[in-house]
Amino acid sequence: MTGSAISKAVCKATTHEVSGPKKKHLDYLIHCTNELNVSVPHLADTLFERTANNSWVVVFKALVTTHHLMMYGNERLIQYLASRNTLFNLNNFLDKGALQGYDMSTFIRRYSRYLNEKAMSYRLVAVDFTKMKRGVDGVMRTMTVEKLIKTLPIIQNQLDALLDFQANSNELTNGVINSAFILLFKDSIRLFAAYNEGVINMLEKYFDMKKNQCKDALEIYKTFLNRMTKLSEFLKVAEQVGIDQGDIPDLTQAPSSLLEALEQHLASLEGRKIKELSTATRANTLSSAVSSLSSTGISLSRMDEKEDENRLKVRRVFQVVGPVRCNSLPLCPEGVCSAMILFYLCCLSVSLLCFPSVPNLTSDLFNLQPTFNPNIQTIHTVPFVPNAISSSPLPCYDTYPCWMPPLSDW
């Protein structure tokens, strides 16, 4: 796979057309990240070059493409991005000449800051918080107190950068910013799910912590409550722009009595005279809080479960007809591409008929996620020093080739 082919695909994904990057170009680039003979630095540098363009459309689409590859490409891409000293330097970007240039430039600056923070988080902990194992035996639920106090602020910083995008429904006026918003929406759900599980773990350990740990944990919890409120506002925008209500989680806050109990416990450790709650009352308050946050966690998991269900249904069709790689899909003649895409859509239609109950997602942008192939192994090329979570990067299973069912086997 040549560098010119990659450059061509990047250019096609980041055209001046005011619409989100086309799925076929994103699929091809994701496929490239899984090929061992493809230079990930060259792919990343080509995307960086597109952000040097004067057009807000090209720059915004380059950021969306990068974000999409960070989410669904091979892990070695985000490893490379995390290893760089600088990523996107767009704090002063401004397109004065184009329609919507001023407005979109603001969101480009905010979006680039989030992608920088996402890469920085990976650099610090060698794991993508949006992809880590969740549940009672997940990473955040089994983490020690020391690691929790170091890791939760990193999640908070990434979530802050995401919520700082601050687009309201009236500002989501074109396909480019809409595609960015959808990716941010997906990241927000998964990021907050990890955040929520970390806080549950921290609360369960709080009354056994040392004084300084309790002080840090209390500040983390207060920040968590504030971020939950901000996320609720972000999700309201998602609902206003037509994202299905079934894909928007219900955020259940812990009772206010918990914060009082946490503050009283810290005060007693500091030697201040204060009437502390009884052990039984404190246990009931903590149990109620954990139950509320666990309900939030279950609600946050629904989106991932629906995406996994969709991938499984499509994969079943591919198992029937047999997959082939379509390395040159973005580069094939228009007529051939149209025929292949038409057949692909027919296959999806068959899968929907055979396996009903697919969520009614109102935006085609939800279909930008790939079908993962567990047979492809991640190759780690960037070394990392020991950190808060692990001494080496965790394996990533969000990898897949660009599949197309063969006509001859149907």
Description:
- One of its GO terms (molecular function) is clathrin heavy chain binding.
- InterPro entries: ANTH_dom, ANTH_dom_sf, AP180-like, ENTH, ENTH_VHS.
- One of its GO terms (cellular component) is clathrin-coated pit.
- The protein has one domain (3-409).
- By secondary structure, it is mainly α.
- The protein has helices spanning 3-13, 23-33, 40-50, 56-72, 75-83, 101-125, 145-163, 175-206, 211-240, 256-269, 279-321, 334-354; strands at 324-325, 403-404.
- α4 (56-72) crosses α8.
- A two-stranded antiparallel sheet has the order 1-2.
- Mean pLDDT is 78; it is low at 321-342, 348-386 and 390-410.
- It is built from 12 helices and 2 strands; from the N terminus they run αααααααααααβαβ.
- The biggest beta sheet, please? 2 strands, antiparallel
- As a percent range, the share of strand residues is under 5%
Q: How far apart, in Å, are the first and last alpha carbons?
A: 28 Å
Mean pLDDT: 78
Q: List the secondary-structure elements in sequence, H or E.
A: HHHHHHHHHHHEHE
Structural class: mainly alpha
Number of domains: 1
Q: Could you give the count of β-strands?
A: 2
Rg calculated over all Cα atoms: 23 Å
Helix-residue proportion: 55-70%
The low-confidence parts are 321-342, 348-386, 390-410
Q: List the strand order in the largest sheet.
A: 1-2
* Number of discrete helical segments: 12
In one word, what is the shape?
elongated
Organism: Salmo trutta (Brown trout)
Domain ENTH: 1-129
Family: Belongs to the PICALM/SNAP91 family.
GO biological process, one term: clathrin-dependent endocytosis
